[in-house]
């Protein structure tokens, strides 16, 4: 089945990957995160939100068999290609990119482990603390971390309701973050 989705039909597969990744990016760029919840609208702040949304979709696809697992890997590859491209756009040269990519990959996987652990234990406070530590390490107390944690829990439920077949075909939605 995967060969049909991602092997020979490259154009259709590229369209699926692009559609899924575009939805992840759009969800990560919701204005409320930056304007109301004080996520820094900086390259690092945007990386944090993109990482969070990538984690959410990876979390949803974990344990799925067949094409869903392959889609999850293709999306991770797309994510890291996008991060590398962004570094180059920021003016990081060929010599500095690998070192920064290694650091960003370590950051991504460390965050996903912390978020996954908190979600698995259904520990809202631990999730909020992990988000605060990662998204706003400079802020000390960050009251909006609880709002972001609630969004993450809601997004996890929202994604769980979406059939894997729908996601594999290129359709995924995230909830709209609401201020207040």
UniProtKB/TrEMBL annotation:
Family annotation (InterPro entries): Ubiq_cyt_c_chap, Ubiqinol_cyt_c_chaperone_CPB3, Ubq_cyt-c_CBP3-rel
Annotated signal sequence range: none
Domain Ubiquinol-cytochrome c chaperone span(s) in chain numbering: 36-174
Top-rank taxon: Bacteria
A Pfam family of this chain: Ubiq_cyt_C_chap
Assigned protein family: Belongs to the UPF0174 family.
Name this protein carries in UniProt: Ubiquinol-cytochrome c chaperone domain-containing protein
